[in-house]
Design brief:
The structure is a homodimer of 340-residue chains. The first copy, chain A, has 340 residues and is of the alpha/beta class. Chain A has helices at 6-13, 17-25, 32-45, 51-58, 79-92, 105-114, 132-137, 162-175, 188-193, 196-212, 226-237, 255-264, 281-286, 298-314; strands spanning 63-68, 96-101, 120-124, 143-146, 157-160, 180-184, 216-219, 245-249, 274-279, 292-295, 323-326, 330-331. Chain A binds a DNA duplex (16 and 16 nucleotides) through α2 and α4.
Chain lengths: 340, 340
DNA sequence: TTGTAAGCGTTATCAC
DNA sequence: GTGATAACGCTTACAA
């Protein structure tokens, strides 16, 4: 049970091996007659080209390396839409996806490029100061970052427009007559690990609130889990008085615990208080109650990343690097008090 | 910026190319002296072997193909521990992981094997009658199933021991004096898609309850989402009277909505009613309140799958196929009423 | 429009 | 213990 080769196809079709190759690649004109004979033979033998041989001869693997942030640090749920979209974008261009976990660090990157395992790399979960960036920038293959480090070292980046997300949340709460805002920050672990979208978001939120002249405070850090959320909510509600209070919760997994804590204190989201979360629409629809949200658009971000990656691959001259920020969208659901 | 080859290493070390190869593979004795010279040259040039060339010459790719159930059907959160464990098991044996999404169906399998993209395949999310099984069984590479189809067609399977999980839940509730049980079934979509662990679980649960002589009913199908959970809870509570009622919720994503619905009806889990869920320990710890659970052990299941896969790969004679069922564990948390 | 043949970078079989 | 050298299966000049 050994696989057929292009030689077998050539013999079966009565043509040369190169003709088989050219029929498959379309890199040279083939007469209708022979093309059909070859295709018939391919069909007949259920021939599939050997990937290793092809990579060796053509110097291109048709594989995209994907470095994902697994391990305890990962936002377990939010990751899948990224992976899924990247996988399907790759398939749409006839490429495979090779999975590498981030715990391999720079070594994984070196291996991917050094062994010619892939033609390009998608690097997720970028830190502000990320050891892997200089390594990534020195590889023989193009690398695209999902996330924006302090110094991209010439590498193209794609990410959600976090400042815009923050502004949208604040603008919305301002427009619906809120006169006090609380921003629920991220966990200390997140902060210290150096995800700088945290700062980008909070800075923009505070600036926007100032611009509207709305008093605000930021409650941070907020650890992961129920207890931390309750403490944060208590701090948010401290000294609460008349008027409309708006909460902005940018960390996806903190949203539900915050909603729970509010309900437990008899403060009903959507009636007594407004809550806007930053998360995917899918996640927002599932919270109880469904949280009004700024969408984090993992699919858009991934799609854009793959687009620019394939552009780099097509025009293999080094295009000038870009930072693409994907705009979020606001969807009002059940947790925001409507206009008076 | 082109990569060095083993030829370069050979020249630098003053040996032949084959010696370099043998130093790396250890497939023949090498004198200490030349070994060190070669290793130094490798280090010096940061040489890495070309994967395509190696695959071509050795007929082994050192890649494991992983077919994952993405798309709307996927249990978005529960998937990651599988992928993560499979990835790290692969790395531990110096193998890469190639990701293929299940929406490609049998075509993905054919491509994986036909193009010699991998040495072995892990197929997840197996249906009772799965079109891919006969295809998988006919491939040139070993395939292992995570899940148990009605007819494995000679392929080895690994899965959680769902009947045992059901028995453990029922035994626990029986031991703590419950005198009525309700099993919350799965969604119609799940059922019709043919996941037979559904039936395996429910059948075993009902049998166990009968064995204990405890009256029970099964509420099914239960669709995904809040509304369906509430309806199910209402049916579960219907005609409720004195005594201890125990709920068993085998669908991971249904657990939290069920807990919410109970609380909303003033029925406190762990005081007025017992709830046992089937989910990972991580998920259980995060529910509100933390649900007593039978763990679904995705890491154990994946690890076992990779173990047997590598065994197949090592002793490439076809070992006799096995069905390995991984035992779950019970952890009491906050949702079960303790012994009187 | 098609065929010939020289690689691509390894591995593994012979020799020595 | 080590070195030549023939595959491995494909792509792609170069010829015709």
């Amino acid at each position: 049970m050994v696989a057929f080769t292009s030689k077998d196809v050539a013999r079966a079709a009565g043509v040369s091996q190169s003709t088989v190759s050219y029929v498959m690649s379309g890199k040279r004109p083939i007469s209708q007659r022979t093309r059909l004979r070859v295709l018939a033979a391919i069909e007949e033998l259920t021939y599939e080209p050997n990937a290793g041989a092809r990579a060796l001869a053509s110097q291109r693997t048709s594989v995209i390396g994907l470095v994902v942030p697994f391990g305890p640090a990962a936002d377990t749920a939010g990751l899948l839409p990224f992976i899924e979209t990247i996988a399907s974008s790759a398939r749409a261009r006839d490429h495979e996806v090779l999975l590498v976990t981030a715990d391999e660090g720079s070594a994984g990157l070196r291996r991917l490029a050094g062994r010619s395992l892939c033609d390009a790399i998608v690097l997720m979960d970028i830190l502000a100061h990320d050891d892997r960036i200089p390594v990534a920038a020195s590889l023989r293959v193009p690398v695209i970052l999902i996330g924006v480090p302090d110094d991209p070292a010439g590498l193209p980046c794609v990410d959600l427009d976090f400042p815009m997300a923050a502004r949208m949340a604040v603008d919305e709460l301002a427009a619906t007559g809120h006169d006090r805002l609380v921003f629920i920050g991220y966990s200390a672990g997140f902060m210290s690990r150096g995800f700088n979208f945290v700062r980008r978001f909070l800075d923009a939120a505070e600036a926007a609130a100032d611009r509207h002249g709305i008093p605000h405070k930021t409650v941070a850090p907020v650890e992961w889990g129920r207890a931390a959320a309750e403490k944060a909510v208590d701090r948010a509600l401290a000294g609460r008085r008349k008027g409309r209070l708006g909460l902005v919760v940018p960390h996806s997994t903190t949203i539900q615990p915050v909603l729970n804590a509010l309900s437990a204190r008899g403060v009903v989201p959507g009636r007594d208080i407004s809550v806007i979360g930053l998360c995917t629409d899918a996640t927002a629809a599932e919270t109880e109650p469904p949280v009004s949200n700024i969408s984090s658009e993992p699919r858009d971000v991934s799609r854009r990343a793959m687009q620019t990656l394939f552009q780099l691959l097509d025009s293999d001259g080094p295009t000038r690097p870009t930072i693409e920020l994907v705009p979020p969208r606001y969807t009002r659901r059940r947790t925001t008090i409507p206009q008076p």
